[in-house]
Amino acid sequence: MVAIGRFNQLEIIKERSVGYFFDGGEDGDILMPKRHQPEHCEVGDFLNVFIFHDAEGRLTATTRIPSAQVGEVAWLKVVEVHRIGAFLDWNMTKDLLVPIREQVELMVPHQSYLVYIHLDEDQRIIGSSRLEKFIQDENQGQFSYGQEVDLLIAEETDLGFKAVVDNSHWGLIYSNEIFQPLHIGQKAKGYIKKLRDDGKIDVALEKPGYSPDRIEELARRIYQRIQLFDGFLPLTDKSPPEVIQDEFQVSKKNFKQAVGKLYKERRILIEEKGLRAVK
């Protein structure tokens, strides 16, 4: 069976005037209408195609890429609202329905919402803003320390930003560990920083622990900035964290490590009021 609402690797088995047909196995032949066809393909080719229902309820294939697949969370804008629910733009020819029952609050045209995409009882692709039904609060062995994950920024809190981790769990990024602008709906790479005793997950935008490559890149940036200011930068490893963050979007700890690297390489002098390039 094909996975509805997701990409499938399927074979073109015949061509007709209406388009290509793919082998859908137990689901039968699946049409890709001509308007969805890519160039340079023929019978016998395997294509990675997205499977959805057309307006008549027939399984249909396309190479068009939606904003998200079934089982994923996306930040989507409402196109229009009807009695049965709201229709959201998810980069497909047919807008995504979020039924009234799946809305935390009634959706408003032109506003954007975090939506989990799933299949209803009739295997139709729909969205839901009731994320608590699908996103788990506690880690149960799915993650490990330092693991790279996909983040979707969901909400700003007193502690920092709440994020959806790998489309399945909630995680928290603490304010004092954020060194770049964040906004609701933003996608980012992150790392598991801590798996707490209560099952909650702390995540970070930088990989935990010492990273030679990251420090090397930061040292390069610092040295370039020193040269840009005629060989002297009015910052030191004793500067306030907020000033360092504004200037380089990094933590004071990483800044000190990069400055220490430049000093050991005898490329800079650390003076009372700043960093000076060695001539």
TrEMBL record:
<dbReference type="InterPro" id="IPR036388">
    <property type="entry name" value="WH-like_DNA-bd_sf"/>
</dbReference>
<dbReference type="InterPro" id="IPR040764">
    <property type="entry name" value="CvfB_WH"/>
</dbReference>
<dbReference type="Pfam" id="PF17783">
    <property type="entry name" value="WHD_CvfB"/>
</dbReference>
<comment type="similarity">
    <text>Belongs to the CvfB family.</text>
</comment>
<protein>
    <submittedName>
        <fullName>GntR family transcriptional regulator</fullName>
    </submittedName>
</protein>
<feature type="domain" description="Conserved virulence factor B first S1">
    <location>
        <begin position="4"/>
        <end position="63"/>
    </location>
</feature>
<dbReference type="Pfam" id="PF13509">
    <property type="entry name" value="S1_2"/>
</dbReference>
<dbReference type="InterPro" id="IPR012340">
    <property type="entry name" value="NA-bd_OB-fold"/>
</dbReference>
<dbReference type="InterPro" id="IPR014464">
    <property type="entry name" value="CvfB_fam"/>
</dbReference>
<dbReference type="InterPro" id="IPR039566">
    <property type="entry name" value="CvfB_S1_st"/>
</dbReference>
<feature type="domain" description="Conserved virulence factor B-like winged helix">
    <location>
        <begin position="221"/>
        <end position="276"/>
    </location>
</feature>
